[in-house]
Amino acid sequence: MWKVVTYLIFATATHAAPAVNDFANVNQFALQLLENTYAFQENFNTKNVVLSPLSVWSIFSLLAEGSSGDTFFELMNGLRLPRDLRKTQSLHMALNSLLNSGNQDVILKGQSAMFTDCSLEVHPEFCQAATSYNTDIYSVDPSNTTKLANDINYYVCLATDGLITNAVTSEALENLRMVLVDALYFKATWTYQFDPLQTKQGAFYDSLGKHVGTVNLMYQKAPHNLAYPPQIEAQVLEMTYGKSSQFSMLILLPANGVPVKKLLNNLATNSLDWMDELRESGGGTDIDVLIPRFKISTQQDLITPLQYSGIHSIFDAMKAQLPGVSDTPLYVTKTIQSVELEVTEEGTTAAASTVVGLENRILGQRFEANRMLNLS
Ligand SMILES: *[C@@H]1O[C@H](CO)[C@@H](O)[C@H](O)[C@H]1NC(C)=O
């Protein structure tokens, strides 16, 4: 009944950012994609929008290494990749080590795989790039889509501790020559857990103050960082996980009358300096926190939101340029993301999978009479 916009790993990446690697660009890409995904989903009146931008970034930045021409420039700009390939590679490594840096009360893991048609000649340099990003490579017969779907779903299921069992259907895999898969799993307990006895049903309102439903509201009084950056037009609460408090969730509550759309635009267009303000906001003071207990499952195709981010030609049968992947011309026809997210008194469990499918693209000239022809 209520609207929540959330995305994974964002806070994680900023919080643990080592000085040598600047995750600001990745976050900027993430916030832009979130704004665009929301704008796209609004057309369908979707109530909840959930996004795992990091999986998308990982797969498309690998494809960027095999791209050229407009495809390359659009990916560089859209993903906000550093001009220097070695910097992108070290960013990848840093993200990989971050993704596997959990501790006893925070489990965080990422896994990626490339399934390629055994009759497709993939350039060794591209395979090397994939391997250097810890991507498992499998040679498959994609014409048996039932088997391929089973293999991919099994891979994702293992990578997400059984949270995502249906990352793809066999229908979605038809005609694909290559499939790139990225899976993330996160499970952590709050530094300050909620007492389930304090959870009560409560009213939930939309941005105009209209009562939209009833939710289970969890309550606690605990020390958290809380800020109200005016440029964001929202109250921001940081709730940390585990004893080390190294990872956290940011919850943004738009100011009265500020629609979610405006909040997302503020996030995408402002610098992330407000995060420093948040971190310096004290944290010693006890805050009364009331947040809903919730569980969300979504599956969506992210091609249109990525196009809104300026990435076009890689999805275009006529224009995609991926000569570094294979001599066989390919283009991306699927970008299916599944997310499972659950927030409880104890903590958070989240999983995401992104499946990017590539097909053979059409070579040469084309005559497509799909519009009115002016014959006189
Ligand atoms: C596809 O693979 C499955 C095994 O997962 C097999 O049972 C089936 O016969 C295969 N179909 C074709 C058409 O080869």
Kindly describe this structure:
- This protein is an alpha+beta fold and about 375 residues long.
- It folds into two domains: about 5-190 and about 295-345, Antithrombin, subunit I, domain 2 (Antithrombin, Chain I, domain 2); about 195-290, Alpha-1-antitrypsin, domain 1, CATH 2.30.39.
- The protein has ten helices and 14 strands.
- Strands 4-3-5-14-13-12 form a six-stranded mixed beta sheet, with helices on both faces. It has a three-stranded antiparallel beta sheet with strand order 6-7-11, with no helix packed on it.
- Helix 2 (about 25-40) packs antiparallel against helix 8.
- The protein is globular and about 65 Å long.
- The protein binds 2-acetamido-2-deoxy-beta-D-glucopyranose.
- The site of 2-acetamido-2-deoxy-beta-D-glucopyranose has 4 residues, from helix 7.
- InterPro entries: Serpin_dom, Serpin_fam, Serpin_sf, Serpin_sf_1, Serpin_sf_2.
Condensed summary:
The chain has 376 residues and is α+β, with helices and mostly antiparallel strands. Helices cover 29% and strands 32% of the residues.
Oligomer: single chain
Bound molecules: 2-acetamido-2-deoxy-beta-D-glucopyranose
Number of strands: 14
State the CATH class of the largest domain. Answer: Alpha Beta
Arithmetic mean of pLDDT: 89
InterPro entries: Serpin_dom (IPR023796), Serpin_fam (IPR000215), Serpin_sf (IPR036186), Serpin_sf_1 (IPR042178), Serpin_sf_2 (IPR042185)
Keywords: Protease inhibitor, Serine protease inhibitor, Signal
Signal peptide: 1-16
Pfam family, one: Serpin
